[in-house]
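Below sits the subject:
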Amino acid sequence: MTDSSTSPPATPRVVIPIVAEQPDPAAKQARREELVSLYKKTEKIYAREVEGWFRNWRLVLIWVTQLVFYGTPWLSWNERQAVLFDLGTRRFYMFNLVLYPQDFIYLTALLVISAYGLFLFTTVAGRLWCGYACPQTVYTEMFMWIENKIEGNRAKRIKMDKAPWTFDKAWRKVAKHGAWISVALWTGYTFVGYFTPIRTLGAEFVSFGMGPWEIFWVLFYGFATYGNAGFMREQVCKYMCPYARFQSAMFDRDTLIISYDAKRGEPRGSRARKTDAQAMGQGDCIDCTLCVQVCPTGIDIRQGLQYECIGCAACIDVCDTVMDKMGTPRGLIRYATENAMDNGWGRKQMWSRVARPRVLIYSSILVIVVVAFLASLYARPPFRVDVVRDRGSLARIVDDGFVENVYRIQLMNASESVQKYRVGVEQLSQSTTNGGQDLVLGPAEARWVPIAVRVPPEVAARMGSGVHPFTVVVEQLRRGEQPQVDVREKSTFMVPR
């Protein structure tokens, strides 16, 4: 039994009344209608114009690439368009070359050469292609130039976009977009001009006779140019282009990249011109943010290497201009390697690291592929031959017991002059042919020719039933009926039981 006298006193229970808060209907409605965005709003980038050495090189490449693109379809060669990919007739003309769909291997070789060239240049000096020759960069530069000429510089464009609509703002916007659309449509027209003779395409446009596919591709390519260069701009480089994602696989610490010299530039801070930065405890960077204002992708290069950087070097040009005004040496932002920045190497030490294993491998493969491509192109015969067995009649016995096989031979004249050919066979004893000798083909003409190959009955008996290999020989004849070039294609001759 428990002694009640020694038990602890009971803890008193305190009851706190809870009064329910009456909700405010207006606040409740406001909370219900609150919209939470999961994505950060993209701010429009107003890139500042810049002058400098790298800017001039970029302008040179823009002029060169666009003169080639817009001008090539208007060149004539052998009374035709110099470069024409005629899908209707399945002929691809490139100056003196006439290619057929069977020559698709050459397109594959060009793609391989382009890929390894891109790998090599990226390993050595980063995104040179993106910064100077990529169509997205080129057309963005062209559209930005139009924008600057019509709407004004960066400060004026920012002020105009924030201001209410006026007549001045309206006509400038209309003029800008009109110029953009004109360039985009001309670009689409030129693109289609590589597949339809551009002069014929112009006549069809004037007479309202363009085909539906031609209209579609002019509008589609023009719309893509207008949208990518006029509106999406850096979004294409950041999110749509796969190259930005896998470029790091080709970078190493000896790759030339656009680098900010933090040891020299920090701590950054504004100061008057000709002021001694060391006396103020500051670096050479005056934190003017011009390197950010000129960047077409809107990044701050002072934060280090970023995948958004397209290597245009606009930040180098503007920073060198600022350094000249401040009386300090150029090169606060420059092309350098990570090893050079960390170890304080000079230009000679930095360039001595170019010939490293990765670069040598890419260079060797590129040289081998280019040499093989050129050698194959040089040794390419001036005509092509395809031999197809006639499926309707595999083998049959004709007059006097001769065994006959019928074939269809496709002859393709890859030159732009009239050529004469003679068809024969090898490795079939006492064989005869008919229907395919001494054929004349016009310039770049292709023709299917039926040919019957016969062997005497005694030869067929000696050969035995079954399939027997032989060779079809097509010779290109000179004026004196002498063979100049021959092409050999293997086939089989069937002897029935």
